[in-house]
Design goal:
The chain is α/β, with parallel strands linked by helices. The chain is built from 16 helices and 25 strands. The strands form 5 sheets. A 7-stranded mixed sheet has the order 9-8-7-6-5-4-25. Helix 10 packs antiparallel against helix 11. The N terminus is likely disordered.
Length: 507
């Protein structure tokens, strides 16, 4: 890996072998003799010289969602991640705001992984003028092929439902983007392998490094004319049930780290024991277990654990339903990319054969007329949308049932409200009482906790010149910032939304 990093820096320093590509759209011109500008898709934008190279935090600053980092150097604009803001309304409103820079001025996007808080704004970016390439791993491209059209479909359906039921303040509510927008965005994707140099032009190069966390997820190491910036993306755990551990941190001039669980330590709970106890308890009273699960990653991990428990006879043989067409298709993708995770082919087949697959809306509605004992896995994982909301409405009022939260719940989401003890949630324009048991699985997180992040960072051969703590709620980000300063002695800060820093002097 060390040799590979040397290659990427050499390639970045050598300049862009790809810089002549699309020269017609990026040629440099003089404007009144006062500095240089570049022409991009019919508009003129100022050229950024190396001395002025900057990193700007367009998202994931002071919040755990909306990952967007803008790198401006050598006349290029490169966006690392392009995610949706989720949770609190004031954050979600940012999705509707004008993008901080014209999308047409962005030369390329480098995508760490497929989750919507990292990829979900791409259809809007392309619709609004972005014309470059979206660089990612092959598995990320495959998963985005499911996630982005599904996200668009849900947005379209929610807009239609809001209009039909009259609970939107807009007379004609429109989705953030459409299925056509999502499909257009997918045509810009360019897959790459791990540990390969990716020329981004004008002395900028990137490399994908395995991050664990999710199929295809990557750390991104960027070289800019001799300066290196390392983005963790979402960093996985060393002992994940399904994913392999993240590759070690080999150092950089600047580190941008996530902090989702920066103020927490995952309890050392056996995953089989934790999930098995919940299933036995709910099934024993004839209840329905509704598991809001991220369709990609978490759904597969929970199914794998249920299959293992059932194979060992540790849980009753209750019906299991996977009510997410996207999760069904994602399971097939996991089978195709077995080299990226730790489940055997036999375990993948058992996971796939465990559940009854629910494809249509009619089949989903029929589940709501059923009764326990049964287990329903459905998206979305934070109860922000999708079919699971109808299951919450149908089964949330019965104390025999359980809502099993299997992943991180961002502030402002229904999942976070239930986790905090809320007795009602707002669904489809009205308050719904929740009397079902709320179970929070502590052992299924796909994110490294504070201790695991610190151990990962401590392996660096030298300290970064600056570490930026992002992708966490304010208390989590600040707790990790304080630990990095206290325990590692590194220069570190937690940036705020739209902060811009110089790569030459990142403090």
């Amino acid at each position: 890996m060390g040799t590979s990093r040397s290659r990427i820096m050499a390639r970045a320093s050598a300049g862009g072998a790809h810089s002549m590509r699309g020269q017609k759209q990026r040629m440099l011109i003089k404007v009144n003799g006062a500095g240089r500008h570049r022409w991009s898709h019919g508009r003129v934008f100022p050229e950024i010289r190396m001395a002025d190279a900057t990193l700007q935090f367009l998202g994931a600053a002071g919040t755990v969602t909306g990952s967007r980092y803008l790198l401006e150097a050598n006349g290029r604009r490169i966006l690392v991640d392009c995610g949706l803001f989720q949770g609190y309304k004031h954050l979600r409103d940012r999705n509707r705001a004008r993008f901080p820079v014209p999308p047409a001025s962005i030369d390329g996007v480098v995508l760490t992984h497929a989750h919507l808080d990292h990829s979900g704004y791409l259809p809007a970016l392309v619709r609004n003028g972005f014309r470059g390439r979206i660089h990612c791993t092959q598995a990320t491209r495959d998963l985005c092929g499911l996630l982005l059209p599904d996200s668009a479909h849900l947005l379209e359906e929610e807009a239609k439902y809001a209009k039909a039921k009259g609970f939107s303040r807009h007379a004609d509510p429109a989705p953030l983007y459409t299925t056509a927008d999502a499909n257009a965005a997918l045509r810009h994707f360019q897959p790459h392998g791990f540990d390969q140099d990716i020329g981004l032009g004008e002395g900028i190069a990137a490399r994908f490094i395995p991050a664990g966390h999710l199929l295809g997820a990557a750390q991104v190491h960027v070289g800019v004319s001799g300066t290196s910036i390392h983005f963790t993306g979402d960093l996985g755990r060393p002992n994940d049930v399904l994913m392999r551990p993240p590759h070690p941190y080999e150092g950089s001039d600047i580190l941008v780290t996530e902090s989702t669980y920066g103020n927490r330590q995952h309890p050392r709970i056996d995953q089989d024991a934790e999930l098995g106890a919940a299933i036995r308890r709910v099934a024993g009273r004839g209840g329905v277990m509704v598991v809001p699960a991220f369709a990609i990653g978490r759904a597969q991990g929970v199914l794998l654990q249920i299959a293992r428990l059932r194979a060992r006879g540790e849980i009753p043989s209750v019906p299991v339903y996977l009510n997410s067409p996207m999760a069904i298709d994602a399971t097939d993708i996991y089978l195709r990319h077995r080299d990226l995770h730790s489940a055997s082919e036999a375990e993948c087949r058992a996971m796939q054969g465990l559940a009854t697959m629910v494809h249509t809306a009619e089949e989903s509605k029929a589940l709501n007329r059923g009764h326990g004992p049964m287990i329903i896995l459905s998206a979305s994982g934070m109860l922000t949308g999708g079919r699971v909301l109808h299951h919450l409405e149908a089964f949330g009022g019965d104390p025999r049932n359980a809502i099993v939260l299997s992943g991180f719940q961002a502030g402002g989401t229904r999942g976070a409200a239930l986790l905090a003890g809320a007795s009602t949630v707002r669904l489809f324009g009205r308050e719904i009482r929740i009397d079902a048991e709320i179970v929070a699985l502590q052992s299924f997180s796909g994110h490294a906790d504070g201790d695991e992040l610190m151990r990962w960072m401590s392996g660096a051969p030298r300290p970064p010149r600056m570490t930026f703590v992002t992708h966490g709620e304010p208390d989590a980000a600040d707790a990790l910032r304080a630990r990095i300063k206290r325990e590692l002695g590194w220069r570190v800060r937690a940036p705020e939304q739209l902060d811009r820093v110089s790569l030459a002097a990142p403090d």
